[in-house]
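Protocol step 4 of 5: obtain the predicted structure for the target chain.
Materials: sequence only (see below). No template structures provided, no constraints applied. The aim of this step is simply to have a reference model before the mutagenesis design in step 5. Sequence pasted as it appears in the construct record:
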Amino acid sequence: SVKAARKEFVKRYGKECKPLFAIHGFNSEPGTVFKRCKQAQGRFDNDDKNDNNDDTNNGGNENTSHFKKKKKTTTTTTTRTVIIPVIWPCVNGIGLRYHVDKNENVPEAEKEFKMLLGNAMNVFQSKNLICHSMGNQVLRRVANGSMKFDNIFMVAADVRHDIFHANYINSATNRDAVEKDGLRIFRMLSKHTEGPNAGKPKGKIYCLYNNYDFALARSPWAGMNWVNRLGRVGIGSYDSWWRPGFIKFDEKRLVHPMLYGYTENVCAYDHLSWKD
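Step 4 output (structure tokens):
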């Protein structure tokens, strides 16, 4: 059962562990996903060790990287992130198989996830979510306020670039319209329950983008939707698919008012080195 799984998780990793549910993208077989998650977990664990050493050597200055866990400022145990891969059936290949994943496998994954994820994920009071590439299509389809996460990381997101824009959201003709998906994702953020910030989100929606992601640039043509992708230009930017490297952000004007201040862009090209 789900409760038994959580009990085993706590027994193995401790009460202070925070799950990071990871939904993979297109062209990812389970064996590859597990291998990459294991490698990423090793890096998280190494960062924990390095952070502890930094506390001793530099007076506890906090590392501000978006990809490392923030440490508690007290002397209590540091929260450890544990990656939990979420596997959905996708085709191993490229080209026309992209259409099979987007048009057949993602909708099927949606059905299964809606039955499973809410109960399975909500047994953890505090947790984060990361989605890569077409995994963000899965997120978009299953998004609803019943699943809560402290932070949501959208990496190389293969969804339309204006999913969080006010004009796109306001174009919805009914509450169930796909144009409302951005709001549904936003409502998945956990909220403070007390204090001056009661009712406000605890964290943010982070968008890891790279305007030189030429593989993602082919998505509008491969998917025949002709709309630039979020993972290329970030949240609250102009649609500049024809000029890679030229991106202007105007989040206050473009992003829906409900979301403004709760989104953040991270440029992969600037923050990740080749060795990473």
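Step 4 remarks: The beta strands are 17-23, 80-86, 128-132, 151-155, 205-209, 263-267. Residues 100 and 162 are 24 Å apart (CA to CA).
Proceed to step 5.
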